[in-house]
Amino acid sequence: MDITRYKPGIIQLQVLIWVAVLLLIFFSLLPMDGWQKSVIYTVVNTLSYAIIIYGNILILYPALYQKKSFVWYGITVILFLIVTGVLRGYASIILYQHFLLIKPFPLNLLMLLGYVPGGVLIYVLSLVFRIAIAYFTLKQQTEEILLQKSQAELNLLKSQVQPHFLFNVLNNIYYRVYKVDPLSAGLIERLSDIMRYFVDESPKEVVPVATEVAFIENYMALEKIRIRHGASIDFEKTYNPELRIPPMLLMTFVENIFKHGIDKSLKQNQVHISLIQQDGYLLFKTSNRRVDPVTGDQPGGFGIANLTKRLSMLYGTKFELTIDSEGELYTAFLKIPV
User: Fold this and answer.
1) Could you confirm whether domain 228-337 is CATH 3.30.565.10?
2) Which of 3, 35, 267, 277 has a Cα-to-Cα distance from 26 of 20 to 30 A?
3) pLDDT of res. 1
């Protein structure tokens, strides 16, 4: 869990919580200990609480516990709490002696270890704190997904200018063209299927992977028309026909192939695409010759950036997206859970 990925609202919530903790500790001690001692105790203890909480939820928990290194996680937590407690005790005593003019006295390890038990409760609270942050993060992501879905549906409605009328017209054109030019008629049929996909399938949350593949193949067939010498596309497919995935999830990579990976002057344009279901994941990989573009969706471009954001909202950190644009080949790899 990376704190830099938190939304502004979650960061503000954490700031408010820590301000409340500071004020609560300070004013609860003020009547008995005076303002100097209260300030020292408040600052030192609040800082140690923050180290324990964020050290656990940002470093120890994701680095060890989430990777199922439970024994090492337990050992590391114990050592972490001991070190934090000893440092807290040492800082408190030294600051008391310096600012309150207390006569220095010798410190021993047993005295400093007395500060360790207080960190155990804070460690438990760090787990609760992490659950709370995860809840609010998920809530915000859900709201964003719903907002994007509503906006997409609105945009789709705006773009649907009598779609069934257009389909009927395309069908009529198809039957007329088929009599004289079956190849062109086939392309018209593919165009009709693409339009139906946009109207009927893309608004859905998930679609059969076979439907997504058919859409990609129709798109590639139409794109080939623009290539002077054509392109050799090897599409490897191994997946469960019952599998469903979010629509338009794989299209960005295929679009990039035809936008930036095809040299229309060459007679040999080799493209390899694979879609494989394996060990609870769906692996999608594209590989094509690298053609230096002037503009477009290269690594860091809008297409890849938007796809990454969508993947984060759909899968959190449970996906893998890598792009290799070095050398002669441009390779994109996507791994999502299914």
Assistant:
1) yes
2) 3
3) 47
